[in-house]
Amino acid sequence: MAAxxxxxxxxxxxxxxxxxxxxxxxxxxxxxxxxLTLGVAQAARTFDVGLDVALAVDFDKVATKTYSLNFPKAxxxxxxxxxxxxxxxxxxxxxxxxxIREDVGEIQALVGGPPCQGHSDLNNHTRRDDPKNAFYKxxxxxxxxxxxxxxxxxxxxTVRHDKGGVVDIVTDHLQHLGYxxxxxxxxxxxxxxxxxxxxxxxLAVRDDVAVPEVVLKSAVTGHDGPYDVKWAIGxxxxxxxxxxxxxxxxxSVDNLARMEWLLKNNKYNLPNELxxxxxxxxxxxxxxxxxxxxxxxxxxxxxxxxGSIGQGRYMHPSLTRALTPHEAARLQGFxxxxxxxxxxxxxxxxxxxxxxxxxxxxxxxxxxxxxxLVDLD
Length: 377
Description:
Layout: E1 22-29, H1 35-45, E2 49-58, H2 61-70, E3 76-78, H3 95-104, E4 109-112, H4 135-146, E5 150-155, H5 166-176, E6 179-187, E7 198-206, H6 212-219, H7 229-233, H8 253-264, H9 325-332, H10 346-355, H11 359-373
Parallel strand pairs: 1-2, 1-4, 2-3, 4-5
Antiparallel strand pairs: 5-7, 6-7
């Protein structure tokens, strides 16, 4: 591991992302707290490119407040995406879309992570056939309206199996608009994230700018790692709980006993007889539930349930508690200079952090794209 003053997650001084010899103009839809934007900003910074966020959109109040806190010069709109962009691809722009095109102006990049619950393997009710899946198509409509040079859409790998075929529909439409399009599933631990998490990326590029297949392949090469839990949160083990970010979640009496058993016996998986009946091996396949994290491995996928060991392998490696919001944010790849809205409640924080896109993903892609997007001469 690098020296403490070089650790990318413990840095407390925010870089001047808006400043640079050159400028990249960005729109981020379904922006959440700003994970994708942060990754683009980090990539731009290495090329002395300042980031100008011409439009960021999300319907969540706490997420948009957090976004504005971290990107104070951004144009942020708290609204539902369907109020801005129509669902019908190829239709004539309505008055509102014409206004958005005029207000936003020329942009180089459009990024977005549409809601993915309909595609998730953890969703057993409407998996692959959820009305939310149609949000994916709003990214193609936004590209039609805003005409960016690059479009990057992030989602879970199972979006490929959506019953409505949204990936194919969006790919075809973007190609019709003149983009070269490629997609890939990327392991985030390959990008230096201390977490096992796989994400699907659809990348569309004006074909005179870059070859998307080459960009996606290059994005996953040359990174250090994989990093482990100790690297990401080891320094937070004895941190004083002086705020909601570092205050541990309260465990039930039963869960506290389970965690004490795991530590006393130096085990990482809870035996059947200590699990609730509904969570025993013969009735489900989620064996990580009630599990303890290992210092020497990456974490499992961080979700909004990170504060409960009944939601996954979220027990701290050496303490009888689940993860704090600060630890979960670190495992997502958010450095300490990224500020979460201090008025957020614990459940709101959990949703925001669990739903966030690790910034390393867009950082890797845009580090490859940057010289082609901005005239660096």
